[in-house]
Amino acid sequence: MSAGSSAREVVLGRVRSALRGAERTSWEDVPRHYRRHRPAPDVVELFCERVADYRATVDRVPADGVGAAVVAAARRTGARRVLAPAGVPQQWCELLRAEFELVSDEDGIGTAELEQVDAVVTTAVVGIASTGTIVLDHGPGQGHRAVTLVPDVHVCVVTESQVADDVPDALRRLDPARPMTFISGPSATSDIELKRVEGVHGPRTLHVLVVPD
What we know:
Blueprint: H1 7-19, H2 43-53, E1 57-60, H3 66-76, E2 81-83, H4 90-97, E3 101-103, H5 111-114, E4 119-123, E5 126-128, E6 133-136, E7 153-159, E8 163-164, H6 167-173, E9 181-183, E10 188-190, E11 196-198, E12 205-211
Parallel strand pairs: 1-12, 2-3, 2-4, 4-7, 5-8, 7-12
Antiparallel strand pairs: 5-6, 6-9, 10-11
Helix pairs in contact: 3-4
Pfam family, one: LUD_dom
Protein name: L-lactate dehydrogenase complex protein LldG
């Protein structure tokens, strides 16, 4: 190495030498066969399996039973105060109101009030089969990010058509200009002795309802 050269310059020089004369592969010629292969014949069933792997509860329910399933999921956790963000179907709200103290975020809701909420019910924008991940872009029915992080229970409804094969497929469906939250199971962490603690950075309980469109 000469006095005026750096290790970086030497490495880059060797890379240029190795590439000199090499044929360039056009972008179109890069193999993309993975885009045409689904991770499983039934991606909805795979999604359910992967969600369950994260210790979340997942149920497939008929389209005409979603409201009742939402109520049952909240009841199972012993919730008393349930938040339904603006945009959640009115039928679900009516059923929830009949059994719980229903909280709305239409006029805005602060952290102090959120701490008094036991459960939140939302929709989603995408589910990822290969990873069991739910994606929220905080549009209608999903609320702002805090409403899905502060309450101890999150009940999330995902339609079958929202289930994407894998992450690249999911990203093609998402608007990069919107805020996004990726949820893979209940919030959990482990200490140095690998003792798992749930509910640290978000909901302790995640209940996913998968419904046909």
